[in-house]
Design goal:
This protein is mainly beta. It has one helix at 31-43; strands at residues 2-3, 51-52, 60-62, 66-70, 75-91, 96-113, 117-120, 124-127, 130-133, 143-146, 150-153, 156-160, 165-175, 177-181, 185-195. β1, α1 (31-43) and β2 (51-52) form a beta-alpha-beta unit.
Length: 203
C-alpha cells in the first residue's frame, strides 16, 4: 500500500492515521514521491500497488499522456479521487484495473485496456473519443466487466475489437454508439445503454 496522504476529513473511531490539513504532521506526496515509493516496492518484489489515503475530497492526478500506467501482472484499485490525461488509465498485459469510485477522464480514452482485466463497479469514466478501448491486434484475451458506474464516450462508450470478453450487468454506457463490438463474446444482463447518434440506414 502506498499511503500518499494522511489528510482526511472523516473521523473513523478505529483510525489513528487521519490528520487535518493544517496539522503539522499532515502530508501529501507529490507525483515524484508516489513514484519513488512504487519503484522501491517494485525493486523489493511487489507487483500489486494500492494507492491509499484519507478522505481527501479534491485529490487529483493529471498527466499529458497516461495519468496511470498499470504495468503487466500488477493491480490498480481506485476508490475515489480523479485521474486525467490524454488517456486516463492504461492497462498492460495481464494487469488488473478495478474502479470502485472516482473520476477517470481522457481527451482520447478514459481507459485503454490491452490484455488486462478491467472491472468497473462505480465512478465516472469519460473519454473524448472512447471511454473504454482495447486493441484488435494486441488486446486479445482482455476481460471487461461492468457492474456499475457511468461510462461516457464522445464517440463510443466501449470499443471492443479484440477477441476477449465483455460482461455488463449494471451501469450506464453512453456514446454516439454505446458499444462498438467487433470480436469476442458479449453478455448483457443489466445496465443501461444510451446511443446519442443519429440512426443510419444501411443497404
Amino acid at each position: 500500500n502506498i499511503n500518499f496522504t494522511n489528510i482526511c476529513h472523516v473521523r473513523c473511531g478505529f483510525c489513528a492515521f487521519g490528520k487535518d490539513p493544517d496539522d503539522p504532521e499532515a502530508y501529501l506526496l507529490d507525483d515524484e514521491g508516489i513514484l519513488n515509493k512504487a519503484e522501491g516496492g517494485y525493486r523489493d518484489g511487489a507487483r500489486e500497488f494500492t494507492l491509499m489515503g484519507g478522505g481527501l475530497e479534491d485529490a487529483t492526478i493529471e498527466a499529458t499522456t497516461y495519468a496511470i500506467n498499470v504495468r503487466a501482472d500488477s493491480t490498480f484499485t481506485m476508490n475515489g479521487g480523479s485521474a486525467s490525461g490524454k488517456h486516463g488509465i492504461y492497462g498492460a498485459d495481464d494487469a488488473t484495473i478495478v474502479i470502485n469510485d472516482g473520476k477517470v477522464s481522457g481527451t482520447s480514452t478514459a481507459i485503454t485496456a490491452m490484455k488486462s482485466n478491467t472491472t468497473i463497479h462505480g465512478g465516472e469514466l469519460y473519454g473524448g473519443s472512447v471511454a473504454i478501448s482495447s486493441n484488435g491486434t494486441y488486446g486479445d484475451g482482455a476481460v471487461n466487466t461492468i457492474t456499475g458506474g457511468t461510462i461516457t464516450g464522445g464517440e463510443v462508450g466501449i470499443y471492443h475489437p479484440q477477441n476477449g470478453k465483455l460482461t455488463i450487468s449494471g451501469g450506464t454506457i453512453t456514446g454516439l454508439s454505446a458499444i462498438h463490438f467487433k470480436s469476442g463474446s458479449l453478455e448483457i444482463s443489466g445496465g443501461k445503454l444510451v446511443a446519442t447518434g443519429e440512426k443510419v440506414e444501411y443497404s
